[in-house]
Automatic annotation (TrEMBL):
Coiled coil: none annotated. SUPFAM superfamilies: Acyl-CoA N-acyltransferases (Nat). The lineage of its organism: Eukaryota, Fungi, Dikarya, Ascomycota, Pezizomycotina. Residues 133-196 form the N-acetyltransferase domain. One of its GO terms (molecular function) is acyltransferase activity, transferring groups other than amino-acyl groups. InterPro entries: Acyl_CoA_acyltransferase, GNAT_dom, Trichothecene_AcTrans. This is N-acetyltransferase domain-containing protein. Pfam families: Acetyltransf_1.
Length: 226
């Protein structure tokens, strides 16, 4: 799609952001964690909580500093979204990683409980997420790609790649930092085309916690570019 533009996400576009990544992650063949965590689907209560969670994670007014949208230049329709994090002072010890886990847990589950949430699966996933990232990055400053999703109606047309290249240039290459991410089956080929390397399988199996599938992911790193 040659008629796309990348813009910082606006507060008024928060619902579009949520709907797009839900639509991208919900299909069974995507084998993602999110629909296993919330098996009742994108209910009104869940939409309210996901809005609040994104604002907690981005400190509200800083939403556009880390979240971006690929838009159709003519219609303004958002077709893909991304969320990044720059970690200049990562955990260097297990105790620091445990403290970080508590912060992540509060951001994820600090709001009102959503009916039907698989909390056990969520806790296990967050623990694996934080400690695996800590083990791999070993206290080095880095950029994390937290979310990259294209609406199913617009997939495989270049929107995700455009957002990925924008974020790599905006954060990683400007700062000279490596990039860490957890890739699902749909995303891995795109990341491999952009110099990400698989370091290990992500140590999580959703079936152990009542999930519909394994939720297969890979831990990938793109080295700092010189």
């Amino acid at each position: 799609m040659s008629n796309l533009k990348i813009e910082p996400l606006q507060l008024s576009e928060l619902d579009d952001f949520i709907r797009i990544y839900w639509a991208a992650f919900a299909p069974t063949e995507a084998d993602m964690i999110l629909p296993m965590l919330y098996p009742r689907g994108l209910t009104l209560d869940l939409m309210t909580e996901l809005r609040a969670r994104l604002l907690r994670e981005t400190e509200g007014g800083k939403l556009g500093d880390t979240c971006f949208a690929a838009k159709d230049s003519e219609t303004g329709e958002i077709v893909a979204v991304s969320k990044w994090a720059v970690n200049l002072h990562p955990a260097t010890t297990r105790a620091e990683a445990e403290a970080e886990l508590e912060q992540v847990r509060e951001a994820r589950f600090g709001g009102p409980a959503v009916e039907g949430v698989n909390r056990g699966l969520g806790e296990a996933f967050l623990t694996a997420l934080v400690f695996t990232e800590w083990e791999i990055m070993q206290g080095r400053p880095y950029v994390g790609l937290r979310n990259l999703a294209t609406h199913p109606d617009h997939q495989r047309k270049g929107a995700g790649a455009l957002l990925l290249r924008d974020g790599l240039a905006r954060f990683a290459d400007r700062l000279g930092l490596p990039v860490y991410l957890d890739a699902g089956a749909f995303g891995r080929p795109l990341y491999e085309k952009h110099e990400f390397e698989v370091l290990r399988d992500f140590p999580f199996d959703g079936r152990k916690y009542g999930g519909r599938s394994e939720g297969k992911h890979w831990c990938m790193v793109r080295p700092a570019q010189k």
